[in-house]
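Hi C.,

You asked whether I'd gotten around to modeling the 329-residue construct. I have! Everything is below, sequence then structure, no commentary in between.
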Amino acid sequence: MGFFVLLAAAGGVWVGREVSASSAGGEVNLTIPEGATSQQIAATLDKRHVIRSARFFRFYAKFKGTEQFKAGDYTFRRNGSYGNALGVMKKGPGTTFVRLTIPEGLTLKEIAERVGKLPGRSAATFLQLAGGGTVRSAYEPQGSTNLEGLLFPDTYFIDQKDDEAVILRRMVTEFEKVAREVGLDDAPSRTGVSPYQATVIASLVETEGKVEADRPKIAQVVYNRLAREMPLQIDATVIYAKGSRRESGQVLFKDLEIDSPYNTYKHKGLPPSPISAVGRAALRAAVAPQKGPWLFYVKYQSDGTHKFAVTGEEHNRNVADAKRRGVNP
């Protein structure tokens, strides 16, 4: 009874009619994303004219004890009652989503493994599509069918209709969107390398830099070494060449002799492709490196912070100091 007293105070007969109205218009199809709050859902229903007041719908849902809703696809009626809309939400979506999280720094193979863990999806199919040339990126070089580094690491909500090709296209499209936002297309004028080469550099920054402030400096070290025609000598590229996972991969002296274009100890210049999926910060660092004369860096703190040096002698002192303090470079 208290509910209707409050409703009357807020709008009287009009509000009561909105709660119980039986007339409604045409169908409205809506997708409720994972993690949407009741406030966001009510605002969306209001905006799409499913209900007439987001505020009163939230009040009504709270009174009915139903404020938690599942993500997915729903079909409502335009200008229906709060009760009808709430009933649709309580019934649940026609299509449900599963969450797919791709962290920064994963290789294409590791991304495929995560896709393969989704119900009804195959890692092998995803990997085959990613190398088959059917799905292409705007940043992929002419003649290449390698999408390594061109899938954006993010959390994706996958519905039951999304096959491996759809998932792959979404990741490629999202990478292109972010790349444009951070100015990857301006890489030639800003850094002197192509957008794809800047993506390769971003992948090196992603695998090497664990602290936000270090990434633009690491990118500058890469550019400085390229300008001086010095080998990059980046361990992550050797680990990639070995095919081992970064978490457990270690570079031994014998590994430095691996005959691979990804061995940046043995071969000068950039590796032929990115070595991992790159996030927004690494892409931005590759496009806008922090200007400086550094040619070396070493992990100097246990949290992954690096120390940078201009000369080999300075670098060797930094390495010795890190080891003395128990930090494994």
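If it helps when you're writing up: The mean pLDDT is 88.

Thanks,
B.
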